[in-house]
Fold:
Amino acid sequence: QVQLLESGPGLVKPSQTLSLTCTISGASITTTYYAWGWIRQPPGKGLEWMGVIDYDGNTYYSPSLKSRTSISRDTSRNQFSLQLSSMTPEDSAVYYCRVVAPYGDHWGQGTQVTVSS
Structure:
């Protein structure tokens, strides 16, 4: 059973860069055909796909967030991370990490991020 756990700051100041980490258990981040990504949900709004890093380390980003987003991985720690720069209050949301596997997907529990001075 794959389990994902997000970690990072709950409060970020405007203009700062958000850094979140997703720790994986039950699978390797290099497992073939698995894609590891980030999704967020602002209050009162729907889910927004942000980007993924695949088993080969290739990254794909949402066009609307591409200029501010970076997803990376640490294979030795079996983790992947999100960096989102130039944060504004509109970036306040619950941030989820997710893995898409050939048989289905798994989600982390989500972590609330609030952007406020």
The two ends are 39 Å apart (CA to CA). The CA atoms of residues 96 and 110 lie 4 Å apart. The chain has a mean pLDDT of 97. The first strand starts at residue 3 and ends at 7.
